[in-house]
Amino acid sequence: MSIPTCYDRTVKLLDGALTDPFNISAAVCDSVEEEFLDQVALIVAHCDLEEERYSFREVRDWSSRLASIMQEDGQASGAPVAVCLDNSFEAAIAHLAIMKIGMISVPILASDPDQIVLRKLAITLPTALFVSSRRGLDWQSIPSIRRAYDLEYIDREMIVNGRRTNHISDAAGCHPPPTVRGSVAAFAFTSGTGSFPKAAIQAHQFLLGTLPSVDVALNSPSAGQLLFAPFDWGWLSGLAILFSAWFFRMPFLVLRGLNGDPSALMDQLMRFEVEHAAFVPTTLRILRTTVKSDCKLRLKSMTTGGERVPSELHEWASEIFHIRINEMYGMTECPGVIGTGDNWQAPVGAMGRAIPGHNLCLIDQAGRPVKDGDRGIIGIRKDHPGVFLGYLNEPTLTRSKFSEEWLISGDIAVQDERGFFWYEGRSDEVIVSAGTRVSLHRIEKLASTHSSVALALAVSLPDDITGEKVILFVVPTPGRLESDLVPSVRGLLRANLSPFEIPRHIRVVDDLPKTATGKLSRVEMRNRYVKEAE
């Protein structure tokens, strides 16, 4: 193999990350070596056994062609362009084309309700939007959007807004501007803990901050090894995993039509002989109920993140797949900062150690380091290339996320004498359900806007599948009890929240317990619910 190991390349890039120009599109597709150009970059497979395969050459050439079309349309460097598409070849080349010509990619979940999509568009004010015309999104209501692109790749031809385009064989059809340190690559929405999701500004160098964690999580992978990671590219973290795989010249697998069927998932993973797999803990719990004997799938790595992995899941993975689950911790503001891998075997329950290249410190609210062994907030040295540049149009909120030296994560941990971090919880009222942070406060605040709701209180309870589930309790406004209050509140939540934020159950109650100071008592309500359920 003519390229160095993943880790060696990553360290070399990190050494120059603070000064050297870096463009994500150039790194993951334009600079692909000749020996890899005709190898598979992406497989999109369906449960009916249909599949499409795309080479690195197609990724490079069609992203360049799309970039040149956007330039011909007058799209200007530095302007944002939103992408609201399911994981697909079209979505991948759209993001790369945007970054290739110095525009700013705005990933948006295709599963978001139209109301949330439009609100995200109103926050980021893109000049263009990639979205399927079949969705019928009212994008014309956003004045900044001058052009919408309906993109399809059929029979090795790209169709834009119903018109076939000419193919170009190299990157000469577009004219990328120079990308310097701090050039913005993306406006990435957070999961919305405590309020509506915020748009975090990330530079192209954020990928350099991500690569070491992917190298650790995948146990130093080799080019050509197939990766499956079913994370939506509407999250920047999902997109970063795809781009990391391509940076390492690894093919990536997208599966469709599984409908949550764990047996179908395993069949597809074995069909394609997947070598690296990443799952949210919820998927691992579901697989554990299905896969109970020695499995023919021989993984080189299995990775998860977002919440602790219990010992029984580690034991199951070791017995079935003969492998240890690697765990990763990060956030939209700085992905992949703590983790485990074959290079160091962390105790079960530990988050792991700091990923190479990351300087971490446990700090107090003022940004001062805490004493050894004390609980503190995880702080990330703010000069690291993975640290975000700030929140879009939120200078006060941005300042609150930084101390003099550190990005303040909001996650509380302790660190033992061997350097392993142990998660203690959030500094705000946030839970982790199905690997995703969910704000109880945000759910309560929205439910309380219903005209027939006087009070709302959300609590979390353990769940065998998702780790934690949300139960919402509402007290009706006196004299305004609706017979359909529960479905009415649920409809309000569905129209304004992402699917993963919707409470599992909504209960109408006469009153809510309060503390001695008159505040609603989440603990007492949880205890009351558990006692009544017994």
Explain this structure to me?
The chain is of the alpha/beta class and 534 residues long. The protein has 2 domains: 6-340 and 348-415, ANL, N-terminal domain (Rossmann fold); 430-533, ANL, C-terminal domain (GMP Synthetase, Chain A, domain 3). The chain is built from 14 helices and 28 strands. Helix 9 (281-290) links the parallel strand 14 and strand 15 (301-305). Helix 2 crosses helix 4, helix 2 crosses helix 7 and helix 6 crosses helix 7. The longest helix has 17 residues, at 56-72. The model has no long low-confidence stretch (mean pLDDT 88).
Brief characterization of the structure:
28% of the residues lie in helices and 26% in strands. With 534 residues, it is α/β, with parallel strands linked by helices.
Keywords:
about 525 residues, alpha/beta, Rossmann fold, GMP Synthetase, Chain A, domain 3, 2 domains, nine-stranded mixed sheet, 14 helices, 28 strands, globular
Give the topology, please.
Layout: H1 6-15, H2 24-30, E1 40-46, E2 51-55, H3 56-72, E3 80-84, H4 89-100, E4 104-107, H5 114-124, E5 128-131, E6 147-149, E7 151-154, E8 157-160, E9 163-164, E10 184-189, E11 199-203, H6 206-217, E12 227-228, H7 236-247, E13 252-256, H8 262-271, E14 276-278, H9 281-290, E15 301-305, H10 311-321, E16 325-331, E17 334-339, E18 353-354, E19 360-363, E20 376-381, E21 390-391, H11 395-400, E22 406-415, E23 421-426, E24 430-433, E25 436-439, H12 440-447, E26 453-463, E27 467-476, H13 485-496, E28 505-508, H14 522-533
Parallel strand pairs: 1-13, 3-4, 3-5, 5-6, 12-13, 12-14, 14-15, 15-16, 27-28
Antiparallel strand pairs: 1-2, 7-8, 8-9, 10-11, 11-21, 16-17, 17-18, 19-20, 20-22, 22-23, 24-25, 26-27
